[in-house]
Design a protein that fits this description.
The protein is of the alpha/beta class. The protein has twelve helices and eight strands. The longest helix has 24 residues, at about 15-40. The radius of gyration is 19 Å and the shape is globular.
Amino acid sequence: MVSALRQLGFDYVFDTDFAADLTIMEEGTELLQRISKYLQGDQHVQLPLMTSCCPGWVSFVEQHYPELTGYLSTAKSPQQMFGAIAKSYFAEKLGVNRKRLFVVSVMPCLAKKYEASRPEFAVDGNPDVDVSIYTRELARLIRYANIKFKELPDGEFDPPLGTSTGAGVIFGTTGGVIEAACRSAYEFFTGKEPEQIDFKKLRGMNGIREATIDFDGVPVKIGIAHGLGNARQLIEEVKNGTSPYHAIEIMACPGGCIGGGGQPFHRGSMKVLRKRAQALYEEDRNKQIRKSHQNPDIIQLYDEYLGEPCGPRAHTLLHTHYFDRKKKVHTGEE
């Protein structure tokens, strides 16, 4: 795919999994901040923290449960984090104005087109992600260009935004975001490495799942759902004040991003989705680095540019806010 993108004319090809690792740094830190405040007796902290990587899910909350938007993580999705970093950190490395960069994302998701167009994800009218195309659209581009895809050699992503870990890879399947977060959050919270890096209790294809992860004596309760019908059950518990969880991962599509609306059609086959999930977990196992906070390019990004996770610059570039879409038109201004 990297080789095909170069033949299509892209000057740089990066890996969105890099931005997934970056998302874990921010979202994992935010989760620990909220849990720490809760354990210190803060009754106003909004738990459970709900993941915000899925724009279909975020839009669902904004439209149907706007009073609960404060429970969503303020961390942007990997797509939007990547665009923000490409047009700030990377643009500065190139010594060019951000408006000279044209960023195209390749996504499994149709809702990413809407997300990229949201006015808050732009600077002076210049979007962080200029165009989002979905997987099938890339396949069409490759065919239209008469590129013999199967004959291409494997290509390498460009530095410094092309390095990713196993944690970033598993983002694409239900349960993967929260598992990736737990790998880093456990170490941030306890100062220790987990005995087992694979949090298999968080995996599976049941529509609603729950697990308790022992953070060295502190039980962290996690809820997971994929499909908005299942998501509604969990968010109703939040609305009613009966949710037992500290964190909830939601993906709008069955199976997560692997079953996204822009993916090759799977006709609702769980067999296909399980194979796609299995492929991600296998890729994760084969990665030399499997925790987001150990990604050397992520470490360099914070050392050179961002400072600390959830710090002032990171918050400006990598976080956002939500609003009741039924009551007002959002201008992108604070």
